[in-house]
Every structure is written in structure tokens, then in C-alpha cells.
Amino acid sequence: MTLTQFPDDWQTALCVAAHPDDLEYGTAAVVAGWTAAGKDVSYLLVTRGEAGIDGMPPEEAAPARAQEERDGAAEVGVDRVDFLDEFTDGTVEYGLPLRRAIAAQIRRVKPELVVVGSFEMFYPGGFVNQADHRAVGMATVDACADAGNRWIFPELIGEGLEPWGGCRHVAIAASTQPTHFVDVTETFDEGVASLEAHQLYNKGLGPDFPSPRELLTQILGMEHLRDYGEKVWAAQLINRR
């Protein structure tokens, strides 16, 4: 496998995820480097992760996890974190409502780069990818095209959201077919701090679950990526123009 250095010819990025903490499993480490370099990065969470803590009712988990996401984002220099409140954790479905909501955010933020997690059935290593992740990943890729077409979701124009066709790159993190990489060795600690900010969620995983540092060492220190750095974020890059 030969990977190419991730492009630097962009200034604004939108990172989309299904739940609070999804971006912290590797992507936050690369975001830390981007924001330190002066790039403008924002987050969009499709749900507030209300079904993610077994011992906490959804009405309590939702605001708690949303705040943990804001705290984690702050650790890597992100101060804009938005949530879509029309979707429910655990039952997100791919379809027009999801595409429309993400396309609307793309028109608001006007990113040149959109980052999303894999929508494959399995992650590298063979672990099954959760259903919400698959729905959000596929919908995000499609929404990048939707955002630039005035005849798809034309009602968005009536809401003041003109088409945005400036999304030049779409990066799919945790892909089994990565094409590009970023050495995140220098921002690894910021990535760890971002995941550690999810204290309630991490506690709910139980004492036998790997610590944030241990887990990110596994994810970003995979043997097959060692040619590109001690800690490496890899993604499949789709160039849209």
C-alpha cells in the first residue's frame, strides 16, 4: 500500500459524525494540526449520542454528551460544534431527510474539505461498523453533491441557503482503502486529550476497555502505516474537481 501526503490546498473544513466521540477516535488528532496551522474547522454531529451510555437515560445523556463533544473539540482548536436534532441516536437512516440536513450545513459553512467516517460494513481489522456510522457516511458523501445543485432540495434556497459547489475534497476516515495520510505524531497528545474529554462516555465503557491513550495508540500506530510516521491518520480521499 502506497499513500500520498494529504493535500494542503484548502482553508475550511467540516467534519461530520453520527455521535459525540466518533471524531475523537483518530480524526481529532489531525484536526489539531490543521487548526494550529490556521485552518478553519467545524464539527457537525447528527445526534447527541443519547443512546450511548447504558446506565444513563437518554434525556440526561444527550446534554452531557453534547457538552463532552464541545469540550473535546476545544482541545483541538475547534469552537464551532453543531448538532442536528431531528435524528435519534441508534436509529439514523440513510435517506433524503438526512442528505438534506447535511447539505444545508454544507451550504452554511461552505467547506472546501468535508471529512466523514467510513460507511463500509467493516472497519480495518474486521470490526463491524455501527449502523448510524454507515448511514451518516454515505449521506455525507452524497450531500456534498446535493449542496452544489440548486435543483436538489430547492427549498433550501428559500431558507437563504444558496448552492455551495466549493467542496473540493471529501476524506473518508477509517477506510479499508486509504489513499492519503497525515503524520499526527506531534499532535497525538491533543488527540488523546480530546477523547479523554468524553469522561462520562469513557466511564460507561467499563474498566476493561482500553484507555484513550491506549486506544489511539492502536488506531494511529498501526503497523502497516509505520512507513509514514510513528502516529498516522489515513483516509480515502475523493477529489471532487
UniProtKB/TrEMBL annotation:
Pfam family of the protein (one): PIG-L
Keyword hit for Repeat: no
Bilayer-crossing regions: none
Alphabetical UniProt keywords: Zinc
Superkingdom classification of source: Bacteria
InterPro entries in UniProt: GlcNAc_PI_deacetylase-related, LmbE-like_dom_sf
Listed name of the protein: PIG-L family deacetylase
Organism: Ornithinimicrobium cryptoxanthini
